[in-house]
Design brief:
Length: 298
Amino acid sequence: MGNEGSDRAREMEVFSAIARTGSFSAAGRVLGLTPSAVSRTIDRIEARLGVRLLIRTTRALTLTAEGQSYLAAARRILADLDEAERVIADQGAPRGRLRVSAAFSHGRLCIVPLLGDFARLYPHILVDISLTDAVVDIAAGQADVAIRFGPLADSALTARRLGETGRSIVASPVYLQRHGTPEVPEDLLHHNCLNFNFRRAEPVWPFRREGRDYALTVTGNIEANNGETLGQLAADAVGIARVGNFGVVDDLAAGRLVPLLEAFNPGDVEPIHAVFVGGANMPARVRVFVDYLADHLR
């Protein structure tokens, strides 16, 4: 049964090569067979099926209607065989296209700088990264791995914790010189507070005073879909922003930004996860990439 299956796959390969090249001799050259061996293969298929697949003349080679049907089926079966072998091989050796989705700021500042070393370690993996603050549907095949912030919704996906990030309120010394430094959270009501424009992001900033947590609604004249933009606007003295710490480390160290209202910081942190389809059939390229992120982002 095993030899018969492999023989039939070889026959389909020969027939497909004939249809692709247009002659027995050209198909033989592609497959390393003599024209007579190619001819015997076609005779064997036609005898078993009891139909004529090809009409051969001195000038042309034409597929019959049955030949067209056999060709379509052969191509589909050969493609399925190639895909099955690729999937099995991929489970063992890391290779193939790896589609990664990461938030714009965190991706540019934290994920992209790691890709060079990862590519050198795994040269047979093609990393296809998209930086977007939109939530992609992994279950629908839009990405293999997505980096997510905050609490995760219940789903059948697998999540691996990569770390966490806090948030700080920041402004530039120039802005503070022009508009004054807020001493208590309520002072922000008189400042230009830059916010996110996500539908899920409300214009409220959390604070803690004497052990009690509360939220303050703030307003401003610019909104953006990523923290890097808000941090840049704050550094340019446009207003005050509340952003992830990872995005403003360099600006804080250089003095382009200063932290505000630290005594009222509630200490809230957002967990960072890699989310993917797990299980026994998880491709090796996904496993090694998530392992690499976990090792280097902690």
